[in-house]
Specification:
By secondary structure, the chain is mostly helical. It has a domain of about 80 residues: Four Helix Bundle (Hemerythrin (Met), subunit A) (Up-down Bundle), CATH 1.20.120.1200. It contains 8 helices and no strands. The model has no long low-confidence stretch (mean pLDDT about 80). Keywords: Cell membrane, Membrane, NAD, Oxidoreductase, Quinone, Transmembrane, Transmembrane helix. It catalyses: a quinone + NADH + 5 H(+)(in) = a quinol + NAD(+) + 4 H(+)(out).
């Protein structure tokens, strides 16, 4: 990824994240989160994680944010009225930002600027030769089947947690429907 694209997507993500916190209107804040997700998706695509970048757009910027906006509209949230900022929380927040920035500069100044080594696709093909021949042939041809690898990892290594998350999402969806129904007495 060219450096100017990295900085563009990083700035889109950072400005979107700051706008989520800074804007008072809940709908504008939710749409700023969409901008932040788009920037994050661009960074994933720049790292050659195409599947994760596309899923970031489809799932988070699409489905999850539509759900957030639907809930905001359902709750009928109003814009918060302006009030004078208190000095102690403002100074505490700025102190945390300053401490984090100093720590980040200290860590980044000591870390070497090394280029990542290319993936050993032949070793990956040998690893998946018996477990999954389809993944093995794609790796041997020089392609990185990231969708297949994510599916392999999810369904073979984390099947029970995946099923538990599915049940929890179902229970939370039923809970939202029950809580959103109006009480008529």
């Amino acid at each position: 990824m060219p450096v100017y694209l990295f900085w563009f997507f990083a700035l889109v993500m950072l400005f979107g994240g700051v706008a989520v916190v800074a804007l008072r209107n809940p709908v504008a804040s939710a749409l700023s989160m969409v901008a932040s997700f788009v920037g994050l998706s661009g960074l994933f695509i720049g790292l050659n994680a195409f599947f994760v970048g596309i899923i970031q757009i489809l799932v988070y910027a699409g489905a999850i944010m539509v759900l957030f906006i639907f809930i905001i509209m359902l709750l009928d949230l109003k814009t918060e009225e302006k009030r004078a900022p208190k000095l102690a929380p403002l100074l505490g927040g700025l102190g945390i930002v300053l401490a984090f920035t100093i720590q980040l500069i200290g860590i980044l100044s000591k870390s070497p600027n090394i280029k990542a080594e290319p993936l050993d696709l032949a070793a990956g093909a040998a690893y998946y030769a018996e477990r999954s021949p389809g993944i093995s042939t794609k790796l041997a041809e020089g392609h990185l089947p990231d969708v297949n690898l994510i599916g392999e990892t999810l369904f073979r290594g984390y099947n029970l947690p995946l099923q538990i998350v599915g049940v929890l999402l179902l229970v939370s969806t039923v809970g939202v429907v029950v809580l959103s129904k109006r009480q008529t007495t």
